[in-house]
Amino acid sequence: MSPLPPDDGAPGADDATPWDQGFEELLRQMLGADADAALRELRERGFDPGALAGPGAAGADPQLVQHVLAQVQRLLSTPSDGPVNTGVAHDVARQVAVAEGDPSLTAAQAREATQALSVAELWLDAVTDLAPSGGRAHAWSRSEWVEATLPAWDALVAPVAASVADALATVLRDQLPDGLGDLGGTGSPELPGVGFTLPGQTAGSPGLPGTDPTALMRRMGSAVFGMQVGQAAGTMSREVFGATDVGLPLLDEPATVLLPTNVAAFADGLDAPAEEVRLFLALREAAHARLFTHVSWLRGHLRGLVDAYARGITIDLGELESQLRDVDLTDTAALQGALSSGGVFGLQNTPEQQATLLRLETTLALVEGWVDEVTAAAALPHLPHAVPLREMLRRRRAAGGPAEHTFASLVGLELRPRRSRDAAALWARIAGESGAAGREAVWAHPDLLPDATDLDDPAGYATRRETARAEEADVDRALEEIFRTAGDDSDDPPAQGTP
């Protein structure tokens, strides 16, 4: 264990070492919700928690110190729940969601939202062959949206979080304050500057579990990512109108959702009446829900592409080390800020990554374009302001919001349909040539989905599909001929002399 600086008297603020200054904050991070009560109890009895970092702690009441350290030990002995600390993510998301107010919904708000979703289903029946999702219609507060969708966001960032945790452990292993790395050793169980052992321990017994430098860095990385996920999810809860705004399925069960508080805030100041805005947004939500429910492969396809892209991301260790060079390791907010720059993600130049990104962006655009086209077809006969509302939603979706930018810094990926207008034009052309049934038939299998070439040239889509079908038919005929010839040869009598 590294020696501590000599105690020449009560140090002033200028004499404190970085370890002295950061130890109380480290205790706060470790103690969580109990931190203020535990530290207040220490101060009321005349004991400075910062003295735990120096030899002056030997004179403190051992029972008081043990009270704090027992809670630290309990926290550190709890197994990590993965690369994202879901508890931190949940707490931060709830705090951010209510930061600008999140009043409970009135009965009138809930009724208006669910009625709008019911009307939307009736209007969609006239323009698409995809049936309603069959799930419940919900009116949610922001906090309820967080509770329902946070597991999906945790899973989304988990692959990158694991990579960042490994990188943090590599870069910061040698940057921990002197003595902290010894807490997980098997030698003396004494803490730095504390001249007694923990209750139930003897000399030579293990110290606090799970606090070797690598494990501590992984835990810090998990907490930092939890903070980022929570910040993004909480911010997004103030922006979204339902459960499908980002183009990815966030719910495991079929359902349609509206957030009346956000819908009302969006409608405020628009020329369109609030009821029209509510119905238009309900149409988009219900259309998304139909697509994700009845195109059974789409949910797994999108999540698989996101996961494949995320797992292929590399971490720039040099950039990460530069970002963290002057960061106080006891300050998780500073760690979060360093990791949020986005520069820690290495450039993705591999053909595999480029191909995955292109497929993901194209699929997101096709989903958004289909919803845009179907919603417009359903709204035009009923809503006078359908055209300006469509354009406003297009621009809003293309620009993204603060939460989407935060997730981009988390996973190196912007979940925005960059080519949704091209996709909407393609779906409109397919419906014009083949009807709604022909348009929906394209979703029957992922191999039938249009690609980037079709978005570039919607007019040539039908010709390319006919050419592809003709080529497939030629291949099928050739295979049939090969199998028929092989079968005929097997029926010939064996040659003379053949046993």
From TrEMBL:
Pfam families: Zincin_2
Keywords: Hydrolase, Metalloprotease, Protease
GO terms assigned for molecular function: metallopeptidase activity
Residue stretches of biased makeup (Basic and acidic residues): 463-473
Region span, Disordered: 454-473
Keyword Protease: yes
Keyword Transferase: no
Protein name (record): Zinc-dependent metalloprotease
Species whose genome carries this gene: Cellulosimicrobium arenosum
